[in-house]
Design a protein that fits this description.
57% of the residues lie in helices and 11% in strands. With 373 residues, the chain is α/β, with parallel strands linked by helices. It has three domains: 138 residues, P-loop containing nucleotide triphosphate hydrolases (Rossmann fold); 67 residues, Helicase, Ruva Protein, domain 3; 137 residues, Zinc Finger, Delta Prime, domain 3 (Up-down Bundle), CATH 1.20.272.10. The chain has a six-stranded parallel β-sheet with strand order 1-6-2-5-4-3, sandwiched between helices. The protein has a two-stranded parallel sheet with strand order 7-8. Helix 4 packs parallel to helix 6 and helix 13 packs antiparallel against helix 16.
């Protein structure tokens, strides 16, 4: 039975299943989900705990199957945790997990920990067995657009809140900018606010003076910000990626990949190809599909041809070449390329919902874009 991570608390309050499969790539939420199941298990009498780290060609799956059937020496019930860091149980592990799921013991509570799984892994026989005989909890990362609400919920849990107006929304947006991509640090910053200030309303100045800039940026999210016209966020992400030591070549590859995808889809549509077919041919799906679809409708073929040319010039710079009229520094060239895309692509309605400070920053960076020709 699949459920979302936010549903786990209500599920556990109604009763405890014997098998839980936690899969996702957000360490804080995965840890909290595991803690919640363990706490419910301890309350129900599953006191003895065994942990198996499995995966790879030499994993001892027979030990896991034996532990499932063995009676506990120290308690009536036991908790077994199976950690598969790679998410790939292997040739022997798949059938072993299937047998394990089909032979659940009422005196054993099992938690299987997995990283984020792709579609093929979720459709595998072993995962289907875990999901059919137990509860699977998908633990997704908190996207940037959902981060302010997540922060507000966490603050409310410790008796704190921001103003219920535009100023409060600006405070949450500022907070989100400082902790984006780093929920573990965000959790620590929220706890810090509980230590520094009493329960009640938090003003912008209080949050700004207490919260550190602990954001960590994922290069794969850069295209999302770019295609929605979030100028301030794009530049902030580029600064963060540079500070974290990310390779300029990798960042350029991601930017250029989106530009080329736009150009190819636009060209196919102009030649009479249905948009849905053009997107599939370029292997574009999921959230990225909607972003590309919107951008294709807003950009002309000449604009995209110019952006492809700019991406080619930038490619040479990040690989050590000089290009007339372009910055010598690779990261300055990447900012120039991003601003050219942003100049051509209007911001989406969602991206325009910002506080006063963000609107001022966006306006300034838009002016920089106009000077980047």
């Amino acid at each position: 039975m699949p459920i979302r991570a936010e549903q786990l608390g209500n599920h556990l309050a109604k009763g405890l299943h014997r098998l839980y499969t936690l899969h996702g790539d957000e360490p804080l939420l995965a840890q909290e989900a595991g803690d919640a199941v363990r706490a419910a298990g301890l309350k129900a009498g599953f006191a003895e705990r065994k942990v198996f780290h499995l995966g790879g060609a030499h994993a001892d799956w027979s030990a896991l199957l034996g532990a499932q059937q063995a009676m506990s020496l120290f308690a009536e019930r036991q908790l077994i945790e199976v950690r598969i860091a790679s998410g790939k149980p292997g040739k022997d592990g798949g059938p072993a997990l299937q047998r394990y799921a089909e032979q659940l013991n009422d005196d054993v509570l099992t938690i299987v920990h997995l990283p984020r799984l792709d579609r093929q892994q979720q459709q595998s026989a072993w995962f289907s067995a875990l999901e059919a005989h137990g509860v699977s909890v998908q633990i997704d990362a908190v996207e940037r657009r959902a981060l302010p609400a997540w922060l507000a919920q966490r603050l409310a849990a410790q008796g704190q809140r921001v103003h219920d107006d535009a100023q409060g929304q600006a405070t949450l947006a500022f907070f989100a900018d400082r902790v984006e991509g780093n929920l573990l640090a965000a959790h620590q910053e929220i706890q810090k606010l509980a230590l520094l200030y009493p329960p009640g309303e938090l003003g912008f100045d209080a949050v700004a003076s207490a919260v550190l800039n602990v954001a960590r940026y994922d290069v794969t999210k850069l295209g999302e910000a770019l295609l929605t016209g979030q100028t301030a966020r794009v530049l902030r992400m580029l600064d963060g990626l540079q500070a974290e030591g990310e390779a300029a070549v990798l960042v350029h590859w991601n930017l250029a990949n989106d530009i080329l995808a736009l150009h190819r889809v636009k060209d196919a549509v102009d030649r009479g190809r249905p948009l849905a077919m053009a997107l599939r041919e370029q292997r574009i799906w999921g959230p990225r599909e909607r972003l590309i679809e919107r951008a294709v409708a807003l950009l002309s073929a000449p604009q995209l041809a110019q952006l492809v040319s700019a991406a080619s010039l930038c490619d040479g710079i990040v690989k050590g070449l000089k290009q007339p009229g372009w910055p010598l520094d690779p990261w300055d060239a990447l900012r120039r390329l991003a601003l050219l895309v942003l100049q051509a692509l209007p911001a989406s309605p969602a991206a325009r919902v910002q506080g006063p400070a963000q609107r001022g920053q966006a306006a300034t960076t838009r002016r920089l874009a106009l000077q980047a020709d």
